[in-house]
């Protein structure tokens, strides 16, 4: 459920009519709803209410906007970060170091040092090589890094191949077959307190079964590690819960997910970490755009050319992803359209042969479910500026990321005087 709804025939974000934001901030623009973020955070936490010891660490990559992170920090969330930049954002948003988990397959030496300097709560180590480097750096500083070993359970998450992370051929984690040996080696090093294991098998999961299979494999591993004398006190179950992008999609609810987690992990006697991203932020945001013009198609439907493009919302071009497109002031008429952006690539297509609200030049429209992996994946391709972001809270709103103009970007490109 979200707080983007028609009131008197006009699409609102909470109590703000979207035409007002288009008028005052311009388009394209991402619009987030605070009430929706808070609701999703609460529903997710409620789903896990029977887990006694836990940390919910928002996957910052899904939406790193500082105001969004602040909303979630207020809800008691920590952060799952995958770069030094995300780590600094989490801290800037007020998340305390002990609630920050550092994931990622390619943490640089500088990033490991940053995590140690800030004394973050947990490193999820993805290779023996990374573990050795972290141990050495921590020991040099007289520190002990808190860490889990990320396992690759070789489970097919049944999602888009580009966002699947738990199959043997994926780059993430340590293969289960090597996990016992790797754990024993890294646990013996000064500088690391290797206190558990972590897993994340993919994103936009529409089925709990692959997750349950992965958690089952972890259970066996935990028992083996304990039998070998290791104290396993922490387990990180990653993120991945899907969201509905269109009518008829029914991914598992947080309550169903929580019930499965409780059933599978009930006797583990560990502190659990969760790293949800999309399920918190996805439906809490829309990309508001304006139709530039409508152009007759060659032998197909007309092209509705909007002022948002693949540089602003990359998911359709990258993954063939579906985002619902709705008129902000629907006339009640429908059309079949190819909805495209202005960028000079055929890939800059949001929807093909889409049955949608009738749209004409100058109309406003939204792409829904754009609060996760939207603005965060924007680029300035075709020398377009960076899209701004707005956070709505009831009957007020604030610009929480300014439009970075093409001029501003150009001003950071010095041309050497020897040219
Ligand atoms: N934890 C780790 C270690 C991850 O790699 C990810 C996402 C998450 C948590 C959060 O997963 P979520 O709950 O959001 O599914 N750009 C793609 C999604 C990439 C996800 C990468 N990892 C998209 O637009 O679909």
TrEMBL record:
Positions annotated as active site in the UniProt record: 344
Cofactor: pyridoxal 5'-phosphate
InterPro entries in the cross-refs: Ala_racemase/Decarboxylase_C, DAP_deCOOHase_LysA, De-COase2_C, De-COase2_N, De-COase2_pyr-phos_BS, Orn/DAP/Arg_de-COase, PLP-binding_barrel
Segments forming domain Orn/DAP/Arg decarboxylase 2 N-terminal: 37-281
Protein EC: 4.1.1.20
Domain Orn/DAP/Arg decarboxylase 2 C-terminal residues, every copy: 30-371
Catalytic activity annotation: meso-2,6-diaminopimelate + H(+) = L-lysine + CO2
Keyword Repeat: no
N6-(pyridoxal phosphate)lysine: modified positions: 61
Similarity comment: family membership: Belongs to the Orn/Lys/Arg decarboxylase class-II family. LysA subfamily.
Role of this protein: Specifically catalyzes the decarboxylation of meso-diaminopimelate (meso-DAP) to L-lysine.
Name under which the protein is recorded: Diaminopimelate decarboxylase
Lineage summary: Bacteria, Pseudomonadati, Pseudomonadota, Alphaproteobacteria, Sphingomonadales
Gene: lysA
């Amino acid at each position: 459920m979200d707080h983007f709804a028609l009131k008197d025939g006009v699409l609102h974000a909470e109590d703000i009519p979207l035409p007002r934001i288009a008028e005052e901030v311009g388009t394209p623009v991402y619009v987030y709803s605070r009430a929706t973020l808070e609701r999703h955070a609460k529903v997710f936490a409620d789903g896990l209410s029977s887990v006694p010891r836990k940390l919910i660490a928002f996957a910052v990559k899904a939406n790193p906007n500082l105001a969004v992170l602040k909303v979630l920090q207020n809800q008691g969330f920590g952060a799952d970060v995958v770069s030094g930049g995300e780590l600094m954002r989490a801290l800037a948003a007020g998340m305390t170091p002990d609630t920050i988990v550092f994931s990622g397959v390619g943490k640089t030496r500088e990033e490991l040092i940053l995590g140690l300097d800030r004394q973050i709560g947990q490193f999820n180590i993805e290779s023996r090589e990374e573990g050795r480097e972290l141990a050495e750096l921590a020991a040099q500083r007289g520190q002990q890094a808190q860490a889990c070993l990320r396992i690759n359970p070789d489970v097919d998450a049944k999602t888009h191949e580009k966002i699947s992370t738990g199959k043997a051929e994926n780059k993430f984690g340590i293969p289960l077959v090597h996990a016992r040996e790797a754990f024993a080696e890294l646990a013996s090093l000064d500088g690391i307190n290797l206190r558990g294991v972590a897993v994340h098998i993919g994103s936009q999961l529409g089925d709990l079964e692959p997750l349950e299979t992965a958690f089952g494999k972890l259970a066996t591993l935990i028992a083996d590690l304990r039998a070998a004398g290791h104290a396993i006190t922490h387990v990180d179950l990653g993120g991945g819960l899907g969201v509905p992008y269109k009518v008829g999609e029914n991914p598992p609810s947080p309550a169903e997910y929580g019930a499965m987690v409780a059933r599978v992990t009930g006797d583990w006697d560990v502190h659990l970490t969760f790293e949800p991203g999309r399920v918190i932020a996805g439906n809490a945001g829309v990309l508001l755009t304006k139709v530039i013009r409508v152009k007759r198609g060659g032998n197909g439907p007309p092209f509705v050319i909007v002022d948002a493009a693949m540089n602003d919302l990359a998911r359709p071009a990258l993954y063939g992803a579906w985002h619902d497109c709705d008129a902000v002031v629907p006339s009640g008429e429908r059309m079949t359209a190819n909805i495209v952006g202005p960028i000079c690539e055929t890939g800059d297509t949001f929807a093909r042969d889409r049955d949608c609200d009738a749209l004409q030049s100058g109309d406003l429209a939204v792409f829904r479910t754009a609060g996760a992996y939207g603005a965060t994946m924007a680029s300035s391709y075709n020398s377009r500026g960076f899209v701004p972001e707005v956070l709505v809270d009831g009957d007020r709103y604030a610009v929480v990321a300014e439009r970075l103009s093409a001029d501003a970007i150009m001003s950071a490109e010095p041309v050497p005087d020897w040219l």
